[in-house]
Amino acid sequence: QVQLVESGGGLVQPGGSLRLSCAASGTIFKVYAMGWYRQAPGKQREMVASITDRGSTNYADSVKGRFTISRDNAKNTVYLQINSLKPEDTAVYYCNADVGDSILHTYWGQGTQVTVSS
After folding, report:
1. What are residue 60's phi and psi, to 5 degrees?
2. What does the alpha-carbon distance between residue 17 and residue 43 come to, in Å, rounded to a whole number?
3. Contact at 8 Å (CB) between 104 and 31?
């Protein structure tokens, strides 16, 4: 099995910054795409950023210019640098990873809370 553990969330003021990290561990043959999603109560989970094994990135329009996703393949870790935080960014942030052994499996972390409030 593969375990994903997010960290770095917390309470910040509007305009502040956070860096989230997600480390994958376990039986990993190859990590393909990794991504960050967020979910607020009563809302569906949405993708905010993703990055392929080749380093190609994609962002939701609402976070472009503020969020930066990166990865360290040697550490099987994905990061999300979040700048200029807005109250509407408040959510539980989850990372996921597509991991291949014989076939592709998608794993999810437990989530880390990001709260943006004055």
Report:
1. -65, 145
2. 23
3. no
pLDDT per position as a tens digit, 41-65: 899 999 999 999 999 999 999 999 9
Partnered with residue 7 across adjacent β-strands are: 21
d(CA 11, CA 118): 9
CA atoms within 13 A on the CB side of 15: 1
Single-letter code of the amino acid located at 51: I
Place of tokens 């305009």: 15
pLDDT > 90 in the chain, percent: 92
The closest of 46, 42, 34, 40 to 6, measured between CA atoms, is 34
- Residue 108 has which token pair? 């999810």
- Contact status, residue 95 vs residue 33, Cβ threshold 8 Å: no
Cβ within 8 Å of residue 84, ≥6 positions away: 15, 17, 66
- Spatial CB neighbours of 21, under 8 Å, sequence gap ≥ 6: 6, 7, 8, 77, 78, 79, 80
